[in-house]
Each structure stands twice: as structure tokens, then as C-alpha cells.
Design goal:
single chain; 67 residues; mainly alpha; 2 helices
Length: 67
Amino acid sequence: MIQKTLYILLIIMTPVLLMAHESADFLRSTGKIYSVVLAVVLIFLGIVFYLVRLDRKISRLEKEMLD
């Protein structure tokens, strides 16, 4: 059952992966790939920053609960 599902998923994803490769080539040729990479990096850094802040707040609350 799992193999059948994986084969179906592979068949569905193949055209999507091919189109993504063509899109990357287009973005690279027009120089816009750097804008996309910058946006992804900024989003990733924002998520990391948010998680670090959240962890500090939770740690502080846990410490206050134990005292």
C-alpha cells in the first residue's frame, strides 16, 4: 500500500519538479533568483528569531512557576 502511494506521489510530483527547474532557470537568467533567495533567507531568519524569543519567554515563565 505504501509503495503504491509513493508511486502515485512520484507520478504527480514529476511535472511539478520539472516546472520548478524551468522556473529556476528563468529566474537565474533574469537575475531575480537573488531576490527569491533573499526573501527565503529573511523569512527563515524571522522564524528563527521568533522561536528564540518564544523559548526565552517560556523558560522565564517556567522559572517563575517553580519559584
